[in-house]
């Protein structure tokens, strides 16, 4: 990994002139109406169905636009994607025209000046008005829309119907009830964790913070502290012992639930196939993650992927056209059928909700309002410095009180925003 | 060959000194081939590292079209004022020191074992060591991590400690990571010292034995002094490697352990600087690391000279 540091520093060095650090020319593209349109999409563990849907879209697109070919590359979602994108920004000749990117990476890419502002284009596009403002915000930096939200993933509370039936429990309707239910399960079935939580599961913990009225930007506020306390109370011997759970990432909590070791888990709609492949298959149901108030729903994190047009693209209007085709209602629905990706267009989601009972808790969660991490390069820093996991782990391992840990985290967040 | 113009030292060395002594151009001529390789490959990056560390240089400056700004020593000031940097630095120095001692102890002990073992055990030990040496750091770390996995790890299954998390306690976690690092780096020490021991004339050891020296005494009083130049090299190498350790910590403790308790300097640099595209700040950390390593190495060499030993 030392090599990686070197590689990054090396890449930075290569971008320099001989004697002082300089900047790459910020290239502006063109608007050719023919040629090859290059598209980057993310690789998937099971890519075939995605490739098939994209293939159909390309067929439709090239039929409507003679003289145009579309070339798709599938890029890995590993952290190396950052380098790949940075490389594309620095060297327009090797950049795509249209690219899929994770919405949490947006701020970094916007600061790098890599993507084009699509505000006008999306406004002029009838289907574009169908995207909720919450979601559009996850593609917006400083009033500029750097992409079309393509699909989202929403987390909700999965629970084991067999365990709940055996212990005569009901799905919790508030976070307080969630805690007491989890403790009851752990007490009566010591072989199970009540609810699988992890010290590194940022997007599992944030709904707790948001639900109590807290926020990332004021972690030392009263609401945030209540949320952090509610979450870290679950990282205890009477639910999920810190020895086992303090180091868990979100992915590991999914494994725990799917592996039948936990009675509840905060999982996404995209985790369904993993659960169906394990011993918990057929013995679970999903409800929205309850909020602080009884009967309310905790605000969920709207993670997902956007489609953007590169600023350096030489086929701007073609690129926008392709993006609107792939991100339009027809193909969003097809992508759900192929990959389980939740559409961002409200009408497409409503149609699906009528057909698919499984989606109801997730769509109810979306309807109750979603939240997003700050669209600011500071978030990348906060994430890289593990501010939230460190805060949760310090409390869970009793290295600090909730007060101390949140104060420290708030200072780190402030420093991240101040320095960028 | 731009190096030609910079290579000769100032006029003072030329004027008035006899050509055969230190001043003449010939030593510089001999240096040329290695300088031609080292200056572009090492000098330039180090120069750029130093240069970047005094600029406000982030991704926005690299590709976002924002102007770079000279900020003097502000990056260094930010580091000096960062309490976490100091605690991580202290932790790194202590961990590296322990690793150097452990690597040398294991490597030297096994080198002696190699000289005394019969052919087949010697072959097996060499093979095992070569395999450890050849294993890429990421692969080796991952395998060790699997061995110590809380639920499925071999160690827990053999010891019957189902569910025990080896990476929960700070010191236990450091112990396991340290063992992995030693496992990766002892073969170099072992092979180097083994070669050195083989080169010691048998008559010397025989004479020591005749004079009544035990194996322990023969090792400390005869082998170690004769191996001193090799040991010096091995120690310096180990200091540099262990101070810069990254992969094992990053992979095994998923980037610094619970609440960052196992962070070392390189991981810290990666997370605060490079992961966040703060190239200027990252360069400053790089410069500090380079200076520390230079200082440690120089102090060590100086201490050896003081001890009256020629290298």
UniProtKB/TrEMBL annotation, chain A:
<dbReference type="GO" id="GO:1901982">
    <property type="term" value="F:maltose binding"/>
</dbReference>
<dbReference type="GO" id="GO:0055052">
    <property type="term" value="C:ATP-binding cassette (ABC) transporter complex, substrate-binding subunit-containing"/>
</dbReference>
<keyword id="KW-0813">Transport</keyword>
<dbReference type="GO" id="GO:0042956">
    <property type="term" value="P:maltodextrin transmembrane transport"/>
</dbReference>
<protein>
    <submittedName>
        <fullName>Extracellular solute-binding protein</fullName>
    </submittedName>
</protein>
<dbReference type="InterPro" id="IPR006059">
    <property type="entry name" value="SBP"/>
</dbReference>
<comment type="similarity">
    <text>Belongs to the bacterial solute-binding protein 1 family.</text>
</comment>
<dbReference type="Pfam" id="PF13416">
    <property type="entry name" value="SBP_bac_8"/>
</dbReference>
<feature type="signal peptide">
    <location>
        <begin position="1"/>
        <end position="26"/>
    </location>
</feature>
<dbReference type="GO" id="GO:0015768">
    <property type="term" value="P:maltose transport"/>
</dbReference>
<keyword id="KW-0732">Signal</keyword>
TrEMBL record, chain B:
<keyword id="KW-1133">Transmembrane helix</keyword>
<dbReference type="InterPro" id="IPR050809">
    <property type="entry name" value="UgpAE/MalFG_permease"/>
</dbReference>
<comment type="similarity">
    <text>Belongs to the binding-protein-dependent transport system permease family.</text>
</comment>
<dbReference type="GO" id="GO:0005886">
    <property type="term" value="C:plasma membrane"/>
</dbReference>
<feature type="transmembrane region" description="Helical">
    <location>
        <begin position="93"/>
        <end position="114"/>
    </location>
</feature>
<feature type="transmembrane region" description="Helical">
    <location>
        <begin position="279"/>
        <end position="301"/>
    </location>
</feature>
<keyword id="KW-0812">Transmembrane</keyword>
<feature type="region of interest" description="Disordered">
    <location>
        <begin position="1"/>
        <end position="22"/>
    </location>
</feature>
<keyword id="KW-0813">Transport</keyword>
<feature type="transmembrane region" description="Helical">
    <location>
        <begin position="218"/>
        <end position="240"/>
    </location>
</feature>
<keyword id="KW-0472">Membrane</keyword>
<feature type="transmembrane region" description="Helical">
    <location>
        <begin position="28"/>
        <end position="47"/>
    </location>
</feature>
<dbReference type="GO" id="GO:0055085">
    <property type="term" value="P:transmembrane transport"/>
</dbReference>
<dbReference type="InterPro" id="IPR035906">
    <property type="entry name" value="MetI-like_sf"/>
</dbReference>
<protein>
    <submittedName>
        <fullName>Sugar ABC transporter permease</fullName>
    </submittedName>
</protein>
<dbReference type="InterPro" id="IPR000515">
    <property type="entry name" value="MetI-like"/>
</dbReference>
<keyword id="KW-1003">Cell membrane</keyword>
<feature type="domain" description="ABC transmembrane type-1">
    <location>
        <begin position="89"/>
        <end position="300"/>
    </location>
</feature>
<feature type="transmembrane region" description="Helical">
    <location>
        <begin position="123"/>
        <end position="147"/>
    </location>
</feature>
<feature type="transmembrane region" description="Helical">
    <location>
        <begin position="171"/>
        <end position="197"/>
    </location>
</feature>
<dbReference type="Pfam" id="PF00528">
    <property type="entry name" value="BPD_transp_1"/>
</dbReference>
């Amino acid at each position: 990994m030392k090599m990686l540091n070197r590689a990054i520093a090396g890449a930075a060095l290569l971008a320099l002139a001989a004697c002082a650090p300089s900047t790459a020319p910020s290239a502006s593209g063109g608007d050719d109406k023919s040629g090859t349109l290059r598209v980057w999409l993310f690789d998937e563990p099971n890519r075939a169905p995605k490739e098939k849907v994209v293939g159909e879209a390309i067929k439709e697109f090239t039929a409507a636009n003679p003289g145009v070919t579309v070339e798709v590359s599938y890029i890995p979602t590993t952290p190396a994607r950052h380098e790949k994108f940075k490389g594309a920004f620095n060297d327009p000749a090797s950049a795509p025209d249209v690219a899929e990117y994770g919405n949490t990476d947006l701020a970094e890419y916007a600061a790098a000046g890599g993507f084009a502002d699509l505000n006008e284009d999306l406004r002029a596009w009838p289907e574009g008005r169908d995207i909720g403002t919450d979601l559009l915000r996850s593609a917006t930096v400083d009033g500029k829309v750097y992409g079309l939200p393509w699909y989202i993933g929403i987390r909700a509370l999965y629970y084991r119907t067999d365990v709940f039936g055996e212990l005569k429990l009901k799905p919790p309707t508030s976070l307080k009830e969630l805690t007491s239910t989890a403790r009851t399960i752990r007490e009566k079935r010591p072989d199970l964790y009540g609810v699988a939580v992890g010290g590194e599961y940022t997007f599992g913990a944030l709904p707790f913070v948001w639900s109590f009225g807290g926020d990332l930007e004021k972690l030392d506020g009263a609401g945030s502290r209540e949320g952090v306390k509610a979450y870290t109370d679950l990282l205890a011997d009477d639910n999920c012992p810190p020895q086992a759970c303090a180091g868990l990432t979100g992915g590991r909590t999914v494994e725990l639930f799917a592996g039948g070791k936990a009675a509840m888990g905060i999982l996404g709609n995209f985790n369904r196939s993993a659960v169906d492949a394990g011993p918990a298959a057929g013995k679970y149901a999903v409800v929205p993650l309850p909020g602080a108030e009884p009967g309310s729903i905790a605000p969920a994190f709207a993670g997902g992927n956007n489609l953007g047009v590169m600023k350096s693209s030489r086929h701007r209007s073609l690129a926008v056209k392709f993006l609107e085709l792939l991100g339009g209602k027809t193909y969003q629905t097809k992508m759900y059928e192929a990959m389980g990706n939740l559409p961002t267009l409200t009408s497409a989601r409503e149609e699906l909700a009528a057909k698919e009972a499984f989606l109801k808790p997730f769509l109810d969660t979306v309807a109750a309002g979603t939240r997003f991490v700050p669209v600011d390069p500071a978030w990348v820093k906060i994430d890289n410095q593990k501010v939230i996991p460190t805060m949760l782990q310090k409390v869970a391992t009793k290295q600090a009180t909730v007060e101390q840990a949140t104060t420290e985290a708030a200072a780190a967040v402030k420093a991240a925003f101040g320095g960028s | 060959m731009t190096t030609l113009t910079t290579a000769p030292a100032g006029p003072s060395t030329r004027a008035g000194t006899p050509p055969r002594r230190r001043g003449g151009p010939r030593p510089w001529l001999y240096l040329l081939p290695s300088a031609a390789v080292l200056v572009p490959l090492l000098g330039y990056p180090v120069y750029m590292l130093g240069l970047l560390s005094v600029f406000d240089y982030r991704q926005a400056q690299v590709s976002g079209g924002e102007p770079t700004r000279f900020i003097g020593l502000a990056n260094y000031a930010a580091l000096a004022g960062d309490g976490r940097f100091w605690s991580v630095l202290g932790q790194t120095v202590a961990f590296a020191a322990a690793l150097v001692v452990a690597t040398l102890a294991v490597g030297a002990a096994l080198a002696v074992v190699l000289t005394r073992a019969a052919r087949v055990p010697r072959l097996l030990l060499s093979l095992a060591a070569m395999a450890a040496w050849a294993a890429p750091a990421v692969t080796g770390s991952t395998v060790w991590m699997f061995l110590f996995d809380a639920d499925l790890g071999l160690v827990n299954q053999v010891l019957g400690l189902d569910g025990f998390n080896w990476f929960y306690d700070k010191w236990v976690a450091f112990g396991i990571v340290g063992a992995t690092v030693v496992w990766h780096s002892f073969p170099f020490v072992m092979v180097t010292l083994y070669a050195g021991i083989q080169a010691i004339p048998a008559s010397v050891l025989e004479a020591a034995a005749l004079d009544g020296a035990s194996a322990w005494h023969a090792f400390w009083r005869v082998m170690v002094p004769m191996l001193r130049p090799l040991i010096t090299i091995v120690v310096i190498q180990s200091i540099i490697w262990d101070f810069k350790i990254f992969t094992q910590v990053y992979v095994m403790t998923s980037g610094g352990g619970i609440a960052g308790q196992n962070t070392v300097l390189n991981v810290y640099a990666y997370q605060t600087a490079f992961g966040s595209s703060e190239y200027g700040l990252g360069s400053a950390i790089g410069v500090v690391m380079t200076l520390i390593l230079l200082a440690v190495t120089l102090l060590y060499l100086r201490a050896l000279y003081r001890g009256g030993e020629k290298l």
